[in-house]
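Appendix B. Chain record.
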Amino acid sequence: MAGDGSVLYCGKGLASESSPEPSSFAVKLSSTGTLLWSWVETEGGGGSACNAVLEIPGAGTSGGSQVAVVGWRTVSGVGRRTVTILDMDNGLTVQTYDGFGDAAGSHGALEMGELTSDGLNLVLSGLKGKENLDEMSFKSYGNVSGGTAVVHKISLANLRSGGASSWSREFGGYFSAKCARQVGTTDSLMVQLYGEAEEKHASVAKISLADGSTTWGPNDYSEHGEGTDLQVSKDGSAFFITGQGVPATNEIEGRLTKAAVSDGARAWTKAYSVGGNPRLIFNECWGGAVLSDGSGIVVSCGAGIEGDQCGNVSGQDRADCLAGDGDKRAGAYKRKAD
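Structure tokens predicted for this chain:
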């Protein structure tokens, strides 16, 4: 939510049924849901996606806010890490920055962006060095395959002038950096990483905001499953990993892990279903937000029946599933049988 009470969101979509590739989009809604403006990526001539959108207060020429659209776009066949700056008032493009060094056979993308507490820098996380544009999948579409995880710190001044990042930090053995969150107003960043090996699906490192050097980690939280986002507690003592995991009973359940900022020690991992039959109804959690009073965390999840789950159950469960009655709760919608 923006400072004026409006809502910003972004993603990717097909402009029409005949569109060959999806394009980035961003939308601004009023506090009551009225569409105020929409923006679509039109440059580059290839596929693109917005993976994060954030407000930059006071960055406009008249002292108003600007919007940073963070993701990737294809330019002359190269997937480039891209930040596009929009005018908060009308959604018009102010500037596009993609000077991160991507080239043919070495593609990149950004998964998340965050404004530092002093309002002077962006911390950007994602990947570099991917050999091709296959499986450029992010968020609920999946995880990107190939590449090397990377985090950048770039000042807003350098971004506007086309200058270089203050520093870039790579994490060998990991495909992508899902996010990098500053711990309050301190020098610490918590970086969430994803790697191919199962034990690296939810990994975290603590690094310095000043120069990107390592404080500890990466620590692999294999008990969690797949990590999708990370949030830091209001008091700066703990961080929370959201995501999902597959227990021995072969279902998918939402997961939340709490660990200490000081040394990465895991406090607990909890699992969450949505009721009904968990063998059929899967739950995946893709983001979170710490409550303003610090009393808890809200986790954003999606639930549904994925694939041919009827084949994973037997007896009455299977009969119910084939009949579209996988969820017996009052008011549940019937699922159309395969």
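Further analysis of this model is presented in Appendix C.
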